[in-house]
Design goal:
23% of the residues lie in helices and 20% in strands. It is α+β, with helices and mostly antiparallel strands. Strand 4 (25-28) and strand 5 form a beta hairpin. The protein is elongated.
C-alpha cells in the first residue's frame, strides 16, 4: 500500500496508523514530524512510456474514420443541422416523419397511434 498526505506528499506505509475512534489514517508528516491525516493511494502512479509502435497503432485508428461515419453540417448552418436531426431522430425507416405538429402540440408515431409527445423531450 502507498499513502500520501492531502497535499500530495508521500508517506512511508510502515508509519501509518489507524485512529480507532474515527477510522482516520494518521502518520508523521515527512517535513514537520507532526501527525497528519493521510489517504491511501488507490492506483499506482508509475508512468509507463509507450513505444513508438504503440503510438503509431493508436494514431492509425484515430486518423481513419469508421465506415459508418456520419458527416454533420457546420453549426454555422442551423437549418441544415435541424434537417439532419429531424432525419436522424424523427424519421421512420421508410423515410416518413414520425413527429408531427398539430395545433401547437407535438405527436409522435409509436407504431399504432399518435400519442402526444412531451415538448420538453423534443426541444
Amino acid at each position: 500500500m502507498r499513502y500520501e498526505t492531502f497535499d500530495g506528499r508521500e508517506v512511508p506505509a510502515e508509519s501509518v496508523q489507524e485512529q480507532s475512534l474515527t477510522d482516520r489514517l494518521l502518520a508523521p508528516d515527512p517535513e514537520s514530524g507532526r501527525w497528519v491525516e493521510v489517504r491511501e493511494l488507490k492506483t499506482d502512479l508509475r508512468v509507463v512510456s509507450p513505444t513508438t509502435a504503440d503510438l503509431a497503432d493508436k494514431m492509425a485508428h484515430i486518423a481513419l474514420p469508421p465506415e459508418d461515419a456520419h458527416e454533420v453540417p457546420a453549426p454555422t448552418a442551423p437549418s441544415k443541422v435541424a434537417r439532419e436531426l429531424v432525419k436522424d431522430l424523427y424519421t421512420h425507416t421508410d423515410d416518413r416523419l414520425i413527429l408531427r405538429n398539430h395545433k401547437g402540440d407535438f405527436y409522435r408515431w409509436d407504431g399504432t397511434c399518435w400519442p402526444e409527445a412531451e415538448a420538453i423531450g423534443i426541444r
